[in-house]
Amino acid sequence: MNQFRHEIHNFPSKLSQEFLEKIFILNQENTPEVGSLSSIEYLRQLIQLSSYQFYVEKDNEIKGFIICFREKSSYDSPNYKFFNNTESKFLYIDRIAIKDSFRRQGIGKSFYELIEKVAITKEIPLCCEVNTNPENLISIKFHEDFGFKKIGNRRYEDHSVAFFKK
Question: How far is CA 73 from CA 20, 86, 90, 118, in A?
């Protein structure tokens, strides 16, 4: 997919333990910006339920990944359920994680450009949530600059989120 700044790959169809461990570690390094995962097995289940999963790798190091869902999945995330209850069709960005040393190099933008092309092709809105407590100002600004509009909020015991749609 050379039209993007970074070479983006689909997740392998057969998920090796080594690949899952790399994705799991990167996810955990990006908390609380992305939700913590309870186990590698839960990550495997999440990937199997998801509709789109992409990653960027260089020199056998995963620099970042994105996992997205379409509507009507059995995914039990309350944030996903918000969109499942309010939209008939959509593409939900569940999690995106970029290795700290590779941030601010356009990987996130490349992922979003790719997933936006999917949404445009399918003629469906692109949806996500961003932490507001703890406040993730960088992500909020990124989404607003990318054309997302805030459409709701939700408070949990330990954090809060804003829901965005484009």
Answer: 21, 14, 11, 17
Residue 165, φ and ψ in degrees, nearest 5: -145, 145
Biggest CA–CA distance in the chain, Å, is 43
User: Quick one: which of 81, 6, 13 has its CA closest to 47?
Assistant: 13
Query: What is the CATH number that goes with domain 8-165?
Result: 3.40.630.30
The tokens of 42 are what?
A: 């839960």
* pTM of the predicted protein model: 0.93
What are the residue ranges spanned by the domains of the chain?
A: 8-165
Helix residue ranges, H only, the chain: 17-29, 40-49, 78-86, 107-122, 137-145
How far, in Å, CA of 132 to CA of 163, rounded?
10
State pLDDT tens for residues 29-70. 998 888 899 999 999 999 999 999 999 998 889 999 999 999
